Amino acid sequence: MTSKRGDVIFLLLLFLAIFKNIFGQNWAFGIDKIATSQDYLRDSLSNFTEFARNYGYAAEEHTVITEDGYILSVFRIPKGKNCRGRVRQPPVLLMHGLLMSSDSWLDAGPSAGLAFLISDACYDLWVGNVRGTYYGRRNLRLNPDTHSQFWNFTSHDMGTLDVPAIINYMLNETGSSELIYVGYSQGARIFFIMCSETFGYCEKIIVSINLAPAARVKYSRSVPVQLLTRFYAVTVPFLSGPRELEVLQKGGLIQKASSFFCKDSILAGTVCRAALALIDSYDPGSISTETIGVLFGHFPAGTSARNLAFFGQNAIVGRFQKYDYGSSKNLELYGTVQPPLYNLNRTNMPVVLMYSENDLLVDSKDVQWLSAQLPNLIESYKVRRPTWTHFDNCYSQYTKITIFPKIREYLQKYSKYGSV
């Protein structure tokens, strides 16, 4: 197949966004009016280390290999450019959301990107990636372009295999026995899965800070995301080839088209902004036009059809449960007809949840439900900006005054000064 079903769906949604925002308006421009910023053009084409170095931050790339052979690129900023004192310990692990990558933590630039802010606050910052993104598209034995088995994974595997491998690696490299975990959306989801399904890893996390945690997604209100995930929940049994099973990858039709058009400042501020608002919600002025031009160079970052189907299944049944393979295979794998729930009682370290009312992907009712399941919840914090959205956690120009003070509060509470 030269065009994937998921790409077609997203392209249709993008056109809907265009018509919604410009239909009936006298809006036209010529090629002579195209305006681009050299900085964000450069940033949109940069990988993590290049992006960080564009602004004077020393960044390292590390290679982590999972138990089942996936090769993940993980990045480290040992000390922020604006850190004037000693680095605090333990190290911090920052994990991205669905269809994103480590680059999402830089896209808002040095004044707002959480990777910049956390490292500038004098933390040894590690920024992870999961399988299926462009930083996790390699395997020791499987070729993602020819082996369908490469794409036979969900966020369950990210939680049970990817994050444990990253934790082992970063603790070995730093000599630390513990770390602080910061997860966003899917990055929070895989943290809870890891605690439920593995032994010895969550005990190494002294506090977990979770932004817009996508555990149970029963009340998700994003129509495009609902359509996409439920589409794959129905169709994934009929997909077989790698080109069908890899979804919304970097370099694919949607990402290339979005990156091309959104580099233009006029389109970035209108059509591309409308596309983001269609997927999530709208927070006026929060995500700058420059950031929009940058982020579509890195988003979407790719995942598997089965992973999207997993989210769709959870949304349909309204439960935070394991993958549903159908009655027969469920009996074989789980010993029950219905997939078992993840055991949130095993998440017994201090946990912080952060959410907002205007988030269409992770509804506040699901966060309130999650709060009631956790045995050691120390705070469930509602972002005070009433228009704060799901995407704002990565891309807003206001992160430094909205969510970062609360993140820093808990980073400081659970850390101490280490070496220079």
UniProtKB/TrEMBL annotation:
Partial AB-hydrolase lipase domain boundaries: 49-106
Source organism, top-level taxon: Eukaryota
Signal peptide: 1-24
Keyword annotations from UniProtKB, A to Z: Glycoprotein, Hydrolase, Lipid degradation, Lipid metabolism, Signal
BP terms from Gene Ontology: lipid catabolic process
Glycoprotein found in the keyword field: yes
InterPro entries: AB_hydrolase_lipase (IPR006693), Lipase_euk (IPR025483)
Keyword Hydrolase tagged: yes
MF (Gene Ontology): hydrolase activity
PANTHER family assigned: LYSOSOMAL ACID LIPASE-RELATED
Record family assignment: Belongs to the AB hydrolase superfamily. Lipase family.
Name of the protein this chain belongs to: Lipase
